[in-house]
């Protein structure tokens, strides 16, 4: 709950966000808690639409954003690198906010939680 309180309704940003979303889901299940409703933006996807790189791993994408000295796989360092990528990409694309940046990058918010699961089931039913 503390991480959700900290986010205060804002979206989470992660590089290869599916991994972090899975960790949050697994942690909730292991703790006997419901999977929390949350929105996620993937800095990997943003980097792929912003930079022309040989590798889009977090250190490479962060370097392209001008963020070079960080301890990769350290939670705080990785979070700062993701933020640097998103802020740099937003400036480069002239995006006013994260939602606008995702639209420019042909991406959308990823979601987890009961509403996201219900939406997936409804989509599957309609197919």
From TrEMBL:
It comes from Candidatus Agrococcus pullicola. GO terms for molecular function: exonuclease activity; nucleic acid binding. Pfam families: RNase_T. Gene3D superfamilies: Ribonuclease H-like superfamily/Ribonuclease H. Signal peptide: none annotated. InterPro entries: Ribonucl_H, RNaseH-like_sf, RNaseH_sf. SUPFAM superfamilies: Ribonuclease H-like. It comes from the Bacteria. Residues 2-85 form the Exonuclease domain. This is DNA polymerase III subunit epsilon.
